[in-house]
Design goal:
With 103 residues, this protein is mostly helical. The chain is built from 5 helices and no strands.
């Protein structure tokens, strides 16, 4: 399951760009929120941990911003981005901070 979530997080922006605008706001934002709040720390399969999901979301967040537009970005993605910047894992914070200019 973590590998599926990591793949979904890494391709969510590309997927959102192909979906109709009405679905972007409702469905895509719901998926995004689920990925950013994923808490499977008890699940450790090989090298896949829940921080990997948040790491991939941090790396791909700007693509999602471009796909959903300015209003959903302000209302939904900015708070999620701030949570990524304040996350517990250094890798997630570094990934999020590295994308600050694109965001």
């Amino acid at each position: 399951m973590p590998m599926v979530k990591r793949s979904a997080a890494s391709n969510l922006g590309k997927f959102a760009a192909t979906v109709e605008a009405a679905h972007s706001k409702a469905d895509i934002m719901s998926i995004f929120e689920d990925l950013t709040q994923d808490d499977q720390d008890s699940v450790r399969l090989l090298a896949d941990k829940s921080w990997c999901v948040r790491y991939m979301v941090a790396n791909q967040l700007y693509e999602l911003c471009e796909a959903v537009g300015p209003e959903p970005t302000r209302s939904d993605l900015v708070p999620a981005y701030v949570r990524l910047l304040h996350g517990n894992e250094a890798e997630v914070r570094i990934a999020a901070a590295g994308k600050v200019t694109k965001f």
